[in-house]
Amino acid sequence: AEAAAEAAAEAAAEAAAQAAAAAAQREQERAEECAATREGQLSWRVARCEEKMGFVGAGSDFAPRVDWLEDVLGLASEGSLEERLGAVERLLELEPFETLAAEPPAEPPAAAPPPSPAPVPAPVPVHGGRVAASPGRGGRGGR
């Protein structure tokens, strides 16, 4: 049973590492596709920020969407749309678009070893179908 649990934990860790690598690859491919046009870049960057905030916006009018992001994050609306979006990305700790579009994704970190199984508690001594009485709690002797 212990070996099966370890094998399952290793399989889960491997699956998580593969999923992370696939997600990074998809993100880079999407960045490369969007890099062809200014509108594509803005669309991808705004959607990524909104996703990080747990919101899904729509439409190609990016200014109100960036306004909303700035309002929620408490940022001042200064500069070009790209500069404002860059400030939002930095605050959300997202990798800059230029980096994602230019570089291949980094290798995912090695999976951590699975945690060792919890120790099994020692059995409680039983005498004649009953748990042994603790000294000083009922039973013989005492006072």
UniProtKB/TrEMBL annotation:
Annotated region (Disordered), positions in chain: 99-143
Biased composition (Pro residues): 105-124
Comp. bias intervals (Low complexity): 125-135
Top-level taxon in the UniProt lineage: Eukaryota
UniProt protein name: Uncharacterized protein
